[in-house]
């Protein structure tokens, strides 16, 4: 008890000091205004509770020799996690100038939320972290993702009661129905009820205990309560709760692993009730602070200007008795460190929080084993994602013993034509089953739940702890995780600048059931804007690929699955799609990222083209090829160049993205003065934004999705958005100088074809035969 309390007090002292102190870290002289930071930033309210958890995790990790990781849901409590990593020595190992003495303590305090220092949250700079926590809601999903396929790992997860009000966190309670007690580790949720958010009470803290227990038991947990404001009482209760929880976890693992018990365990959850801002100022300026929302951030805001606030701050800091906790040189005394584990057992030094140290290369098989034969372009069709599914099944099979690859998705694996993976692994499921259920498997590695948030959180936690995966999702609904991918991209960008963080496997999205083939579901299912969102983010991290057929999808997927530290977005269709390139051609084309399909155009090599038809995406590629076919038939003297873009970032200048083209490459591909008719998969203004600095931008005319969606036929979707072959031919006639007069009759035929289309689909409910039966047979 003495050593636990000493460690906790030391962590509290360091946490408060980081918010306030610029100098005089050990209070060896009376506190003066010049010792205080000019801008006071940080979150005190949650820090004492986080320090309590860290202290007691230290004890059980050391006593039981555990591999453990902690997800700090209230990530704004950065001062506490920084304090604990400094105390245990892991911080100084990563940042040798922040020594574990008075000089290092002063630097630790000074750098917090200070220019040139470290952020106020549990950011990538903090050893032992995989969760930033700036945006609340994702901690429990990350914790379960970290525990998957790590059978010896304990993942503690502190959930703030404000965070517990979010939708993603509420959905994450169901993750225990997917946790395999045989092959996965354990998650210990610690619901920290300190009563308040920034300015309001929290819902769960105001529930009667019986109602809260009923809620948690309904989620499949057995609650263990710890409550109080007397440190000695709380220490005893917390120690007992930790031991009880870990004993129950050990019993569940033994039953499943040694006795073959298949019933889903009721996992423990600790409900911790302590005052917000515990041990801080009880009252400031006549207003209660400790135990209220007023302690959320900086309890004493006027310390530099208000002598009474300065006096209160000094009394607060001295209440921890720092002279008992640190020696004359500022080093933690033996009592403070008595409960701290050693080596990689320390929470700040665990390799599970630096997953690049654990990751192994994924055994991606040779693509030729899965490639579709292409003797002539545009004469055969395949479902690209079905072809990819065969490759993913092999990957799943080849990782069966090492269990470091997972496929996640919101109830759409089969819908997205990836069901071949079920031949290698079923769907993870620990709840009840019925005879008519298919592919459910207690040990499965396909993760399906109708929550994009939970899928994303699982995969992020899985990747950050050293494994591989793929997230398959309907294109329109991946927007649900826009904020989550923001945070992951920021994490990767920061991690790349930290030499001690090893690269992790990339976060790979497969977006399918896309905008152009949601003709049956209608407008609500049609939104290609995730690509726009991602390309706004850090260019060194994000990659966007639009493979036009099955073999290019295989090539792109091969690259993405092997890559590190990226967010790869792959947009590909699941409906039958023309095969344009052989496997060898696909490899070369994808390596270029953008290139001329000379077989599709009518250039003779002796002069510049009259027009460039460009495309990105499978349906736009088909429409461009059909338009080129019409031009070849009706205007054979026209020199047409066809350019296909797989890697969308190639359109950016090389100074703005690592994959960007220099001006010579771009001009050689698209010309500087010829019309470019660009058929794009998504919103057309994205292409303009990517290429607006190019010499020939004024000649660029982009067709794409313009929010003209409904339930209709596949071809009517492109007609409604003016992306169809007939409109593209009309665009060529309108924009090639002199052609408007010479080709008036051709333009009229194209307009008439659109009119016939409208009449035909309203009578027959299907597309025109000339469209539905079209193949490339030039």
UniProtKB/TrEMBL annotation:
Residues 574-776 form the Xylulose 5-phosphate/Fructose 6-phosphate phosphoketolase C-terminal domain. Pfam families: XFP, XFP_C, XFP_N. Its cofactor is thiamine diphosphate. PROSITE patterns: PHOSPHOKETOLASE_1, PHOSPHOKETOLASE_2. InterPro entries: Phosphoketolase, THDP-binding, Transketo_C/PFOR_II, Xul5P/Fru6P_PKetolase, Xul5P/Fru6P_PKetolase_C, Xul5P/Fru6P_PKetolase_CS, Xul5P/Fru6P_PKetolase_N, Xul5P/Fru6P_PKetolase_ThDP_BS. Keywords: Lyase, Thiamine pyrophosphate. SUPFAM superfamilies: Thiamin diphosphate-binding fold (THDP-binding). This is Probable phosphoketolase. It comes from Streptomyces venetus.
